[in-house]
């Protein structure tokens, strides 16, 4: 124990040492000089295919793989040009379509565009063709196709480009420059909140620059892992990385700077003040970082690639934030000295040594007094409010249609809706059956007997003659529950054909497999995250009761956050959640929610050992209330920056996490947890020695107001 304590003291004194602070600064300058060029290249290794990918074991994935192997010349993304005139197509409209068909042949794989497909009502025509070339060539081709569609179009004729090629281009356009926009929005949000928090024209710059350095380091490490270790990185995980590093890094900075400010009043030497501040806060900061990082790594147990890839990317960000805030930030703060806090410079006062800093926190002393007077009523009332908020979950549903995934209308969505208005519902995205060629007729016959299948096409034989591909048009809209049930029945029917080796793919099959994959991930990852967080809390607090109370509080906070977000998202028109959001937001809210209770309870444990349970808990609430509340507001605001992205799932994530963090900050950590701890009493710390009756009289420390620094 003594050895560990000595090591902790040495580590705490390394960054703010009289000579070592300069060595630490030089180390970081060299590190960021090497990391900067790598961080810029992170977008080059993005693989956004993982955003929509399923596990390789899913039937829809196996169907795609078989189609690519059996029909290698027909795997280019399909462009679907839509032409609609509500009053009926004219000869001029048809001439426009014929001219476009000829022009589009230069972009089509194979050099030919099939004849247009007319709707039964005579109001619409479709031109479909696979786009040739690599990704860059396809992007140029799609841009030309879009321009051609609007050129010389007869008045009143509506046109749009949809299909996979059109959707791919819309996503590219939507996110062009968004990584820079998100970074600037996040940095601006953090800068404003730090300026308000510190009311200093200089101090806010230090944590902001430090967290920006941490973000560069994290981006560089993720780039290297993606380039050389096969780490999957997509736009979502890169966006979360930026927000997470800024939000969590600033939280750690706020906690450390608040403790440093306290110690500057007690120590004439700023180096000694920082060493004490770092030693007393590094335990809570390290435990917080470990909780979030290990919780994120639990996502490796998920099967959905976009969810699984988020884990290690986020964990790297947490590690970078922890490293920067416990080494670079202390060194820089000590190098610049006390004047950084101007105009509220904390001056050393011999009278401040041994005095209670709670006198500096008038509002939080009153809140602590309120909690202490009637703890049972406070925790019951707070819990009831959270339960009441949870009823808003009824406004949410799982499963977001593709045409509702953008915050604004894009061409591919417009085209899809035009098709749905004039063609059979399932014609937009038929199910695709891949089967052995031998029993092809039996497979087709079995598919035609399935309720909900409107039409089954003729089998298309693969070039090697081993496989056939059959299109099955569904009677219902592809993303409806009825269509999902039809695909389930269709799979059962074709699987039952002897020797068919049949697989059913397509958009509806993808949705069905996605739903099942996410359900499995929820059942596995959620208990794993809770178990990991519980173990970390037990090790940190050396107790069993307190971790159980904290875990119950953050789960209740998550449910309440989903309910409150349900009310907000329903009012915004985004109540249909992307399937991966409940699990991802659960992880962040549980891990980040525990963050604030870790900051509170580690201080409460420290004060309980000195003062006794009741005064210790109330004292901890008083002295940590302001800084933890500031940290919560900063974190909620940084996640709110995700709402600048043009995707509905990003907006949903911003709302859920933002609301959840604020609930955790203002209700759970400020009222529920301390009131519960007071109501349960010293048994909160069972089975540690703190749960035993005090062997000495417990008295609150003398409270004297420390004069404000000039």
Structure description:
With 710 residues, this protein is of the alpha+beta class. It is built from 21 helices and eleven strands. It has helices at 2-14, 20-40, 59-70, 91-104, 135-150, 163-175, 178-198, 205-228, 235-266, 270-297, 305-336, 362-373, 375-390, 411-422, 440-448, 481-495, 507-541, 545-572, 581-611, 613-640, 648-680, and strands spanning 78-84, 117-118, 124-130, 158-162, 397-398, 431-436, 453-456, 460-461, 467-474, 503-505, 576-577. The strands form three sheets. Strands 6, 7, 8, 9 and 10 form a five-stranded antiparallel sheet that branches. A four-stranded antiparallel sheet has the order 2-3-1-4. It has a two-stranded parallel sheet with strand order 5-11. The longest helix is centred in the C-terminal third of the chain and has 35 residues, at 507-541.
What's a quick, concise take on this entry?
The protein has 710 residues and is of the alpha+beta class. The chain has helices at 2-14, 20-40, 59-70, 91-104, 135-150, 163-175, 178-198, 205-228, 235-266, 270-297, 305-336, 362-373, 375-390, 411-422, 440-448, 481-495, 507-541, 545-572, 581-611, 613-640, 648-680; strands at residues 78-84, 117-118, 124-130, 158-162, 397-398, 431-436, 453-456, 460-461, 467-474, 503-505, 576-577.
